[in-house]
Amino acid sequence: MPMTRIGTSETLLEELRGWVEHETPTTDPAAIDALMDKIAAELEAVGARVERIPGRDGRGGQLIARTPPETSGNGRPVVVAGHLDTVWDHGVLSFRVEGEKAYGPGIYDMKSGSFFAFHSLREILRQGTRTKSPITLILTSDEEVGSQTSRELIEAEAARACAVLIPEPAGGTQKACVTARKGTGRMVVKVKGQSAHSGGNWQDGRSAVVTLARLITAIHHMVDLEAGTTTNCAPIWGGTRPNVIPNEAGCEVDIRVATVEKGEALVAAISALAGPQPEGTEVSITGGMNRPPMVENAAALALYEAARAAAAKAGYDLPKQHRGGGSDGNFTAAMGVPTLDGLGGAGAGAHAEFEHVIWPELAPRCAVLCELMETLGD
Question: What are the residue boundaries of the Peptidase M20 dimerisation domain, all occurrences included (predicted)?
Fold first, then answer.
């Protein structure tokens, strides 16, 4: 089977720059849809069958691109799923290159990986490479806020797939792909108290902030690093003025767990804190798990070995890792579909002001994803 020519890292960086400079905060659905317009036009021009799903609930739309039947085998498709939204508001960061590092909003998480998937599909079709299986590319708009409007689509496409590839960024200094991830959850704690003057009527008040402080400490004590369980309470709010006993307070709670069972237990433990409190306040707690754990299994390891062999041909070693952050791969792996994650750009700084990729590695990293897209199948 002929291999698709990817091009050089310099040419990939030049085109990736356009994606990065086209900023796409999750909160700006019009900006995301405009980038999807450009992507759709490029893919349709080389024969891809493109479908657009309109956005809802204040989010952007989704894009599905499929190879035409005559370009591939007849088995179950290989699904490649990436997202275009970033955590960065417009104008916070700008694109720049310093030595081997290319900086910019979302360039690491995960514009580079989504670009790899697009570029690979476009070049496979443009160069007439016949693939072992059909390819389905999904690009979504809301992964950074939990994939509420795209999860159903991702799971529907994964249910028909022989494998799912997730080009989220390669991990850490080892530049590893990902065979397991923690499950993630989000909960909201709200406290209602009773206002009073903090000097003249202190005894009549019921401080929501005091209750919240106690609950935050209790939730923090649920952390079990050895078991892979963490909690984090932020942001936190409460009170109006120093001389007013606060009648409202609250926080969000991020939870990370290694197994489904630990997730259920942690959600139950936090939820049990709700109800009347010793301070005379009332607590309500909502939310729960939103991404199941991605557990390493034999199917994921088989995909990893294929990726590692492709990386060796491209001239580098590809280790694997387990990662604490969630991705859309959590959904597909929990369905029992073979899933390999972390196939995007190498770099650092996801969600940080120094976010960057190592741009000379763009071509070899993209080549591995492209080879998997070409060669995986039943």
Answer: 179-275
